Amino acid sequence: MPRFRLTLAYNGSSFSGWQIQPNAPTVQAAVEKALGVALRQKVQVHGSGRTDAGVHANGQVAHFDFPRALSETERARLRKSLSGLLAPDVFVKELVPVHDSFHARFDADYRTYHYYFSDIHQPLFGQTTAFFPQLPHFDDMRRAASCIQGDLDCLSFTPFDPALPHHRCWFFESYFREADDYGRYCYVVTANRFLRNLVRSLVGTLIDVGSGKKTAEEFSALFRNPDRTKSGTTAPAKGLVLYKVGYDGHWKLP
Prior knowledge:
EC 5.4.99.12; tRNA pseudouridine synthase A; 254 residues; tRNA pseudouridine(38-40) synthase activity; globular; alpha+beta; 2 domains; Alpha-Beta Plaits
């Protein structure tokens, strides 16, 4: 059966996350409903991964199957219809045919998240930027972030899940940068996978470093000696964006 890949951007503020839930608005449910209307039949959508309630996306990837191939003109028309049906919170950036063995989740080489925050109030970005006042030790935050490289045990930063064989992730990059001219900063992190609340917990603990509650060395030690009780407060969801899901082999595990 022909398979198609969607690339989606969305503002997660009004959603209870990506995955379908009973009696709660989710991105997956909204996309499936829009596809059902546009294609006039029930369609199941498979995402590259879950995003939590309030988390946004610039490059969420999903796939769905349809009984017949769609021409380029039909795909363009479908993409336009979907964006109209999903507006204003969800936008379809791309809709392309893929091999019928492609899987949005299992074929991904890496995911990149951005976390946007500022140490001054930003009324223009209230839904997408977290506010953390007084970060005098920003250089220590940068130093702590740079230690997040390679194969690391992340149990200090995610709830224990007995269903998982391990809580390790392989990190390809982790750094801070100035995001724009409005005084916002951005934490960029790329890994082969992300566990529940991992990025938000990393950011919350890095903020502790920036405010002087922890040292960069204490932060680094949490990977060598996992202890969930010693990580920082989980950062707000509104600053987090699933920026990109990569299938291009740019980063692969050694």
